[in-house]
Design brief:
There is one protein chain. By secondary structure, the protein is of the alpha/beta class. It has helices at residues 22-36, 58-68, 83-89, 95-104, 121-124, 138-147, 167-174, 213-220, 260-269, 284-287, 304-318, 338-348, and strands at 7-10, 41-43, 50-54, 77-79, 109-114, 129-133, 151-152, 180-183, 194-197, 204-207, 225-226, 254-257, 274-278, 295-299, 325-329. It has two domains: 7-239, DHBP synthase (Alpha-Beta Complex), CATH 3.90.870.10; 254-348, Rossmann fold (3-Layer(aba) Sandwich). The strands form two sheets. It has an eleven-stranded mixed beta sheet with strand order 1-8-2-3-7-4-6-5-9-10-11, with helices on both faces. Strands 12-15-13-14 form a four-stranded parallel beta sheet, with helices on both faces. A hairpin with a 6-residue loop joins strand 9 (194-197) and strand 10 (204-207).
């Protein structure tokens, strides 16, 4: 028997209004009912769209793993409506987590803290810690309040694929694997949250994201470490999602190149159709390729935050162009570009 595709419900909520309009309130009630009955709902956040289930219902959370084809060893982030809900899910609340939540929540930062007894094993991949975030999106927080439960919500896409930043990205990636999609418009940040392990001294960034290390150091009152590449596959890897070598990858093979225009020319000369993603559209080598019919050039901003907002949408769009290869000019190796570089390096890693 054929399964039907999910409804996409547009959820408008003007910034000047404190309560959602009736149609949006009805959509939230419908989504909450699905969540209470163990179903999956795709929800907007300021980072990417999430595939949500009741975080306290192990069988509902198992549905996330089945829908995404996600390995059980990859833990989930639990989304909460406020810091009080977060603290109710933790065995303890480290000072670093308290400082980060007080300053940056709601916002694109996740804290890893000791796991409390209410969290099922499946959420944390059996580990002793849980990752918690309060999203800076009114629809997501209102849904958590309406459903009356925290929500486990990884990105709403198949495992290893490009994360969705629009409702239609979700539909294209998951199809009938999700019961309902709430459309809150394009995501404002465009990449996943910064994840900070607050159980270590000093705290450690497990996944770079929109919030910088400098901003975190300013509120925790001391240094914050990066997760070293050499630590991959250790205990740190199971505390946070986004640690797999291959992740955020389009269907079209992607490669990074310090000489993207030259590499693009080589591929074109070999008969390939190429997408070239670069900030250097006025570079003579890039302009020399402009007339090549088998080339799609995508200009990107020089600002890392603006680049991040466009990154996944750009990869989704290029995947629709029947290209043989996507070549991305390697971003600067600076801390400001760390999150973008992280996503692109993982996207360029070949499948096992």
């Amino acid at each position: 028997m054929a399964r039907t595709l999910p409804d996409i419900l547009r959820c408008d909520w003007p910034v000047e209004e404190t309560t959602p309009p009736p149609a949006t309130a009805q959509a939230l009630e419908r989504a909450a009912a699905i969540l209470r009955h163990g179903g999956l709902v795709a929800i907007p956040t300021e980072t990417v769209y999430g595939l949500a289930a009741d975080a306290l219902d192990a069988e509902a959370v198992a549905g996330i793993f089945r829908a995404k084809g996600r390995p059980a060893s990859n833990p989930l982030i639990v989304h909460v409506s406020d810091a009080a809900m977060a603290r109710s899910l933790a065995a303890s609340w480290p000072a670093a987590a308290a400082a980060i939540a007080a300053r940056f929540w709601p916002g694109p930062v996740t804290v890893v803290v000791p796991r409390g007894p209410r969290i099922p094993d499946i959420v944390t991949a059996g580990g002793p810690t849980v990752a918690l975030r309060c999203p800076d999106h009114r629809l997501a927080r209102r849904l958590i309040e309406t459903a009356g439960t925290p929500l486990a919500a990884p990105s709403a896409n198949r495992s290893e694929a490009v994360s969705p930043t629009t409702a239609h990205h979700v539909l294209a990636g998951l199809g009938d694997r999700v019961a309902l999609i709430l459309d809150g418009g394009p995501c404002g940040q465009g990449i996943e949250s910064t994840v900070v392990d607050c159980t270590t001294v000093p705290p450690r960034i497990l996944r770079p994201g929109p919030l910088s290390r400098a901003a975190i150091e300013a509120v925790v009152g001391g240094s914050v470490e990066w997760l070293a590449a050499a630590d991959s596959g250790t205990d740190h890897a199971v505390r946070s999602p986004g640690q797999q070598p291959r992740h955020y990858a389009p269907r079209t093979p992607l490669e990074l190149s310090a000489e993207a225009a030259r590499r693009g020319a080589e591929l074109l000369d070999s008969g390939s159709r190429v997408g070239l993603v670069t900030t250097a559209v006025d570079d003579p080598a890039t302009r020399a390729l402009a007339s090549r019919r088998e080339l799609v050039v995508v200009p990107m901003p020089n600002d890392p935050a603006a680049y991040a907002r466009l990154l996944y949408a750009t990869l989704h769009a290029l995947d629709q162009r029947a290209l043989d290869r996507i070549v991305v000019a390697t971003p600067p190796d600076t801390e400001a570009w760390q999150a973008v570089r992280d996503r692109l390096v993982r996207a360029a890693t070949p499948p096992l």
